[in-house]
Amino acid sequence: MNTTLRDSQNRSKELSSRLAQLETTNHALQTRVNELENLLETERGNQLTELQRLREEISRLQKEMALQLQEYQDLMDIKIALDMEIAAYRRMLESEEERLNITPGRTTAAVQERISVRGGTPLRGVKRKRTMFSDEETTKAELKSTATATGSVHIVEEDPDGKYIKLHNKGDKEYSLSGHQLIRTTENEEINPVVYKFHRSYKLAPDATATVWSSDAGETHDPPTTLVMKNLKWPTDDSITTRLINNEGETVAERESKKVMVSYSTSLERPEAPWRARSVAVSCNEPAAGHTQLLDLQSSVIYTMSNG
Hints:
This protein has one helix at about 1-100; strands spanning about 110-115, 120, 130-150, 155-160, 165-170, 175, 180-185, 195, 205, 210-215, 225-230, 240-245, 250-270, 275-290, 290-300. By secondary structure, it is α+β, with helices and mostly antiparallel strands. Belongs to the intermediate filament family.
């Protein structure tokens, strides 16, 4: 009896010691979990801060790109204007040389060209007129579609106004649509699905297209390419799904379409103001009979541009 009691006491002490060890271990693990959670929260905060910084950097770079693009466009406008002026002055010089019978072989001195604004102001100081751009932005709804198929028959097109659905056999063999159903559904629960069931003898030839029209589309039933539903019309909505189901209830072709708003921006180019008057002074030195003859030619040319 005493031995049994002693053994029980020893067993109780061992269990108490084991329990104390487990509690110590549990406390240490709980402390580690809390440290890891704090570390995770700190890391998450750092990541959010870095993400915000990157977004601000992207925004800044986009603004700089837009500014540089505008500066580039302005420089291109000036370059085009200068090219036009240079070409005009070159033609004037060539016409004067031809009129005076001056050729590069006979000219011993370089032709000096001096371009100035009427009244004596140097052309270098003239500010070029910019070419103005007006942006027109339009927004309209478009139908964006994604299509999948497990066989040779695909749903290739559907009218956004619900007039028709087109099927195309992309295979090189005739495809039987016996027992197949063409089903259109929408996300609007108030609009009931519309089901068109193909005739048991209907087959779609290779590389052929069949169009299933709504009853109010005004088309004439002319199988096998033109099929018109009786007293049914395809539903329309912002989001529609069209499926081709075989006689075993499997989807062999599917097309999902959603209406999205698309913005289009059009840039119209127009000159801000007409060209100013320019005057050209040309000096040519040509040797003749042992002495130099100086020809001073004064010409002016006026360019005007209209919005036409």
